[in-house]
Design brief:
Chain lengths: 78, 130
């Protein structure tokens, strides 16, 4: 393991300590687990995925035309 | 910060927005995007056979590429706007988020509501139609 110094706001420090107490772990262990979860949940977007997202963007409006017209919350009022 | 719609969120994920600003979208536009990707008779059929990472990346995009704004932060402002300006949920959340974060709004042309430019101008929000 590597030692790393971080600057936290007072609010972040209080929230971290409260969560660490609740989970019965040290602040360092909690920070490590938060980082593990965040990195695991965020897939990198590679060139192939960018290409597919671009293809989806190119046909987005044509493919979704009218999809939300019956939804009062989500439709774009024309 | 730039707040974008569902279509421009895809452009951000495709790396085609070409901006150094923080790019974000609202919960409602993010929901529309994910709903569209799930529709197997329309857009979703294009994602068949793609890596499972693609829907995950759209659902939980890397923050450096696209942030999804927490609607709870602006609920009161959005409710006030909806009442004052007669906006529906997606419009009220969009305008309230832009006001709250001091953000510029970028929309694709088909996603510009009839009264949105007028309302955004009245609320001091800069709108760019892409």
């Amino acid at each position: 393991m590597h030692r790393t110094n971080l600057y936290l706001t007072d609010e972040q420090e209080r929230a971290l300590d409260a969560r660490a107490r609740a989970e019965g772990v040290s602040r360092s262990a909690l920070v490590r687990s938060i980082i593990d979860r965040e990195l695991a949940m965020t897939p990198a977007i590679d060139v192939e995925m960018e290409k597919l997202f671009g293809e989806l963007a190119d046909v987005y409006h044509e493919s979704t035309n009218g999809m939300f017209d019956a939804d009062a919350d989500l439709r774009i009022e024309k | 910060m730039i707040i974008v719609d569902d279509k421009l969120s895809l452009e951000a994920l495709a790396g085609r927005l070409g901006t150094n600003d923080v790019v974000a979208t609202t919960w409602a536009f993010h929901f529309r995007l994910l709903r569209a990707l799930e529709d197997q008779t329309r857009l979703g059929r294009l994602t068949r056979g793609s890596t499972a990472q693609l829907p995950r990346a759209a659902a939980e995009p890397p923050e450096a590429i696209l942030q999804v704004l927490d609607p709870r932060v602006i609920t009161a402002e959005a409710a006030d706007l909806a009442a004052r300006q007669g906006l529906n949920l997606i419009a009220a959340e969009l305008v309230a988020s832009a006001v709250h974060y001091g953000a510029t709004v970028h929309l694709s042309r088909p996603n510009v509501g009839r009264r949105w430019p007028e309302v955004m101008a009245a609320e001091g929000v800069t709108l760019r139609i892409v």
